[in-house]
Each structure stands twice: as structure tokens, then as C-alpha cells.
Amino acid sequence: MRVFIPRFLGAIAYLVVLTVVGTIAYVAIEGWAWQEALYMTVITVTSVGYAEVRPLSEPGRNFTMILLAGGVTGIGIWFALITSFIVEFDLEARPGLISPCLRVGRWTSTETAFPEGAYL
After folding, report:
1. Which stretches within 94-111 are classed as H helix?
2. Over the range 73-109, which residues count as b (16 or more CB within 10 Å of their CB) and which as e?
3. What's the whole-model pTM score?
4. Fewer C-beta neighbours within 10 Å, C or N terminus of the chain?
5. How many CB atoms lie within 10 A of CB 23?
6. Which one of 1.10.287.70, 3.40.50.10420, 1.10.10.10, 3.40.50.300 gives the CATH number of domain 4-102?
């Protein structure tokens, strides 16, 4: 559980920084108002895909592609962390669900086969 908090905070911090950088970049590249730039950044990072606030210049389109890749990566990491948390929480809540030999750190490198009665 303790390992998840820093990871979640890291993922959230990444998305916040990406949003701030995207907003500032749209203001600088396109000369938009802050609210328009923030709106465009949020719909790009979240991959919602509404139409552009205004037509984009070529540098604006190039930046949007980079921002989209960063947003998809960040959201993907965030969902992976949530999935990992749910699975590990569920496994800890039901200790008989997984063999104790298969828990992290219990399987030694000298063991080459499953112990008798072990299950996945």
C-alpha cells in the first residue's frame, strides 16, 4: 500500500506538469487566451478529441501531437497503477487465493518446479 502513494502522486504530478506546460505552450505558440489554451490542453491530454478551439498553425499541430503522446502515456500509466492497486489489494484481502510460495520474495532461485499442491 505504501508503494502506491508515491506512484500515484508521481502520475498525478506528471499530468499536472503536462497540463501546465501545454497551456503555456499554446499561449506562446498560438497566442491564445489562457482559458482557451487550458481547454485545448485538457481535451488533448485526455484524448477527448473535440474540435480545436481555433485553427492551429503548423507548429501548433506539431506540439499537439507531442502533447497527445505525453497525455496518452500519462493516462495509461495512471490506469495501470489503479489496476495494479486493485489486483494487489484483492490478493491481500484473500490470502488463500494464491499459494504462499508464489508471493514476491518467497520463491528462491534454486527452486525449478512448482511445489506439490501449488496453484496459480
Report:
1. none
2. ebbeebeebeeeeeeeeeeeeeeeeeeeeeeeeeeee
3. 0.72
4. C
5. 20
6. 1.10.287.70
Q: What are the domain boundaries of the chain? A: 4-102
Rounded Cα distance between 93 and 99, Å, is 14
**C-alpha dist (Å) from residue 23 to 44, 47, 56, 68, 76:** 11, 15, 14, 13, 21
Q: What is the DSSP letter of 110?
A: T
